[in-house]
Specification:
50% helix, 5 strands, five-stranded parallel β-sheet, alpha/beta
């Protein structure tokens, strides 16, 4: 029956560190670099406050089964949970916040480090909820050109033979990320540091030094050797094989530059420009890729008329525009 008795949320007054960012923005690279600090143990994606914490209960065997895969694939100590004393101590914890803190504190102690940190991109839309449980947290957020992160997401899904990428859904997700970050910063201004993936790629030592100063740990440890990671830092796949794309920070520090026109139609660029036109966080990226004001407003007026007066849903406009283009080509050929 314990499985059906969920833990209360609780509060822990400790300076936990959360590494967040929209999907495909460089959170893995940032996590590996932060984990190189001798005082910080940064575990990979736990998705803890995205969905896993909702399943925690006073059934300890069930809890450990839930978390076992995380430590096997995202930590430096795959058998971390195979500890009878740890299991016994966890069974006495009554709140979600204490459970998470106790788990990661023991993990960092096992590695001989003072502080724990955790990286889950999904936590970026849970920051306000997390801050209620951890009022003294430090959050390092990484942003990337949203056009490039969308392309990277598309390519990853394509490589996985998944073809249901929706640009509309992705843009809504980016807007939700921004809303959460702006809301969190308004109430926790000194608890959030936002860095750019492009800066981390071009001046990694300077950016990571800035991150460590924000986290109030020794930044003098940063040097050229710091960009190297050992094999124990590299996550493994579900079948236990080392994930090759994580094996070299040097390679990940080379920014992927995409030709936006190759991946996006004029209509999709219009969507980015209109939907993220009032963005604060991504404003610079949008401005740099926006069409001239005349072309932009002409296109906007045309598409808004189609949407408002004819009642064509926005996600169908691209199909309509492409059909018109095809018809014109046939007529003129």
């Amino acid at each position: 029956m314990g499985r059906f008795a969920p833990l209360k949320k609780g509060i822990v007054e400790r300076k936990g560190i959360f590494v967040v960012g929209a999907a495909r923005s460089g959170t893995t690279l940032l996590r590996l670099l932060i984990n190189n600090h001798p005082d910080i143990a940064c575990i990979g994606e736990t998705q803890f406050f995205h969905h896993n914490y909702l399943q925690l209960s006073n059934n300890q065997a069930y809890n450990l089964q839930l978390l076992d895969h995380i430590f096997k694939t995202e930590s430096e100590v795959p058998d971390f949970l195979n500890d009878l004393q740890l299991e016994k101590d966890l069974s006495n914890i009554k709140t979600v916040a204490e459970y998470f803190d106790f788990l990661l504190s023991n993990y960092s102690n096992k590695l001989g480090k003072k502080y724990w940190a955790e990286k889950s991109p999904s936590h970026v839309i849970r920051l306000n909820a997390i801050s209620k449980m951890f009022p003294d947290i430090k959050v390092v957020n990484i942003i990337r050109n949203p056009y490039f992160s969308a392309i990277s997401r598309f390519k990853k899904l394509k490589n996985s033979q998944i073809s249901n990428f929706s640009l509309i859904t992705y843009i809504k997700y980016i807007k939700r990320v921004e809303d959460e970050l702006v809301s969190f910063q308004s109430m926790n201004n000194n608890s959030l540091l936002t860095i750019r993936y492009e800066d981390l790629s071009s001046v990694p030592l300077g950016v990571i030094t800035k991150v460590f100063k924000f986290l109030e740990v020794d930044s003098s440890v940063v040097n050229s050797e710091f960009l190297k990671i050992s094999k124990k830092n590299i996550p493994v796949s579900s079948d236990g094989e080392e994930q090759e794309h994580h094996s070299s920070v040097g390679e990940k520090l080379t920014e992927s530059i995409y030709d936006i026109d190759e991946y996006f139609s004029a209509f999709q660029l219009y969507l980015f420009s209109t939907e993220l036109n009032n963005s604060i966080i991504f404003k610079e990226y949008i401005e740099n890729n926006k069409e001239s004001n005349f072309i932009f407003f002409l296109r906007k007026a045309l598409l808004d008329c189609l949407y408002t007066f004819i009642g064509i849903p926005k996600y169908r406009l691209r199909r309509l525009v492409n059909q018109i283009k095809s018809s014109l080509k046939r007529i003129l050929s």
